[in-house]
Specification:
mainly alpha; 4 domains; 445 residues; Arc Repressor Mutant, subunit A; single chain; 3 strands
Length: 445
């Protein structure tokens, strides 16, 4: 939003009325409120579906009153009544209207959709429910693997669902896929299955994805995480949620990363407590720390680090304990608690030396150099960061060493800042140009 004024871009965003945002004060923001259809427009929509025969006028008005001008509700209500009437074999506009006027019209759009789904033929309803468990977007190859039908038979089974507009064709490339007409349609179809049925299907879908996309599972981790959580396959939920979080982090999609890492922690609660799961509980909190820090959301970070510290001490894991103190170095800087920041950093460096952990040493020196910069001790910051830059050579310039960005880039940033404060502009320019070259080679925003 902040970058739009200088760009030739029109950004169109839809939201429900209760959604809160901070854009109202922007001079380049305009809100277009989508109110229910006024009576004339609602009648036009109803007539486009029911026709203009005068005998349907009472039905048209009744439907408009019931749906209060909500076009989706109006459309689905008419479709429900017409489908119901088609099953009874009634003919003629007048007779149709008289019958429909005396029928019970569902009171909510959820009920409308549920009644439409219930009237589908058994096989059509089953296909729609299976598609709903896969998700709002439904790859044909995945649906075929679940229903175990030949491709042509499956397409024939899906054709009525397209004709009645439950599903639309969404894409032909890179694979053929369908999508639900509306998120609410997907939700109601999904909820028409019992919980245990849904759970069992989610488990089957995991296996199908792992088989179909065995050579490119990285593309499917978000979908696998979703089904593992819904299927309560907790070990796979932990694995795939963490992988999805790491993937989101690489794209700088930090809010998504936080959600995935939190889901992974939730899955972890369902697994037996042993050294491996406790180590993963610590590492997940480090992952969360990096994503939250990138968002500037510092409030939950200290709690995550305290929990990681308790677990590391219980395990006697000095390396992970060192990372706790390393991250605390950075945590105390935004609150200007520099004494605690530096003390934490020095403690982390001592552990790094004791256990011989080069990555912990590099990552900590990045953060410690930054802390000395904030205290105004630019000479000490320069010396620490120079050593760090010198130690990160070759392919190591791409390594993160526990940080959200490559440690080489991080070190250069604060080294250049320190050199600038000291008036060492010639070296600062050289170091800055080095940093730009490294950052471009990393190809990460």
């Amino acid at each position: 939003m902040e970058s739009l004024p200088a760009a030739r871009v029109l950004l169109l965003v839809s939201s429900r009325p209760e959604y809160q945002h901070g854009w109202t004060s922007k001079t380049y923001y305009t809100q277009l409120r989508l109110d229910p259809l006024p009576p004339a427009s609602a009648q036009e929509l109803a007539h486009s579906i029911l026709g203009h025969d005068t005998s349907v006028m009472p039905l048209t008005q009744r439907l408009i009153d019931l749906t209060e001008g909500n076009p989706f509700f109006l459309e689905e209500s008419i479709q429900t009544l017409v489908e119901t009437q088609a099953l009874t074999g009634e003919r003629g506009a007048y007779r149709l209207t008289q019958v429909l006027l005396h029928m019970q019209v569902p009171a909510t759009v959820h009920m409308v959709l549920a009644s439409r789904i219930d009237r589908l033929p058994v096989e059509g309803k089953r296909l729609l429910q299976l598609a709903a468990v896969i998700g709002k977007d439904v790859p044909l190859s995945l649906l075929q693997a679940i229903v175990e039908l030949p491709a042509e038979a499956l397409r024939q089974g899906l054709a009525p669902l397209q004709r009645t507009e439950f599903l639309y064709e969404r894409s032909l490339f890179p694979e053929f896929a369908y999508t639900f007409k509306h998120a609410l349609t997907h939700e109601v179809a999904y909820e028409s299955l019992q919980q245990e049925q849904r759970k069992a299907l989610h488990v089957r879908i995991i296996g199908a994805i792992e088989t179909l996309f065995a050579d490119r599972l990285a593309e499917q981790v978000e979908r696998l995480a979703y089904h593992a959580l819904r299927g309560e396959v907790w070990d796979k939920a932990l694995t795939y949620c963490r992988q999805a979080g790491a993937k989101a982090t690489e794209r700088s999609a930090f809010r998504g990363a936080v959600a995935y890492f939190e889901q992974a922690l939730g899955a972890l609660q369902h697994l037996p407590e042993n050294r491996d799961t406790l180590e993963q509980a610590i590492d997940l909190r480090f992952d969360l720390r990096n994503a939250l820090f990138a968002l500037g959301d510092h409030r939950p970070i200290l709690e995550h680090l305290r929990q990681a510290e308790t677990l590391a001490q219980a395990l006697g894991d000095q390396r992970r304990l060192g990372w706790v103190f390393s991250y605390m170095t950075c945590h105390f800087c935004p609150t200007a608690d520099y004494d605690r920041a530096i003390a934490s950093g020095e403690r982390a460096l001592a552990i790094a030396a004791a256990v011989g952990d080069f990555g912990l040493q590099v990552g900590t020196q990045c953060l410690l150099g930054q802390a000395y910069y904030f205290t105004g001790d630019y000479c000490r910051a320069r010396d620490i960061l120079r050593r760090n830059v010198a130690s990160i050579e070759g392919e190591l310039v791409h390594e993160h060493f526990g940080l959200p960005v490559p440690a080489s880039v991080y070190s250069h940033t604060w080294l250049v800042a320190s050199l600038a404060e000291l008036g060492a502009f010639a070296e600062g320019i050289v170091r800055g140009e080095e940093e730009v070259r490294i950052a471009e080679s990393v190809d990460q925003p």
